[in-house]
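User: Hello! I'm new to structural biology and keep hearing that structure can be predicted from sequence alone. Could you demonstrate with MOSC domain-containing protein? Please show me the input and the output so I can see what each looks like.

Assistant: Of course. The first part below is the input, the amino acid sequence of MOSC domain-containing protein. The second part is the output, the predicted structure written as tokens.
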Amino acid sequence: MSVVSSVNLAVVRSGEWAGRLGRSGIDKRPAAAPVMFTETGVQGDAVCDTKHHGAWYQAAYAFDGEELAHWSAELGKHLVPGNAGENLTLTGVDSTTALIGERWAIGGAVLRVTGPRQPCRVFADFWDVPGLVKRFTQRGRTGVYLAVEQPGEISAGDEVRKLSRPDHDVQVAEVFALTRQGRADLSEHVAGCLPDLPEKWRATAAARIDCSRATA
């Protein structure tokens, strides 16, 4: 069964590792009670860097518990739910193979997959792993950002049910592969999901596609 193993909320922390603002909400901890997910974000969470986070299409972030286990073994660290900065730690969900625009029902909420996470220096410094951005990018299993279509409460143990999938068959991992891994061979395939990408990310993907076509 695909389930939420943990719902996580930010503990705002400060330090040089936290980037240009000196503070970050990437450190998230499991919530003891149901949490409301809304179109503007997760109640009780905190977004410090609003330039790069907190848009409607980043209302929530989900990461696979199996990936936390992978990185725990890879890095020799004991990573626990919330350590990837995720609001939802999922079990039995290969989120990176979700389709752009896929819709999930979880608890009382309906969420829509909008795109992959882009690893950054704050993430690497939070884990205290030099070169993590490159390693995370090479692995390409990023978790997913989610928009909230129907607000509702989500709790640990809630089932993740797929409500609908678009016809284009473009996975989150494929968008990431084109935009961050240089996989120009995916250009025409990824073009099929452009209408389902948020405008900012659509422009990035379209630029990669145009570049690939120009050099073909």
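User: So the tokens describe the shape?

Assistant: Right, they're a compact way of writing down the 3D structure. Reading them back into a model, for example: The chain has a mean pLDDT of 96.
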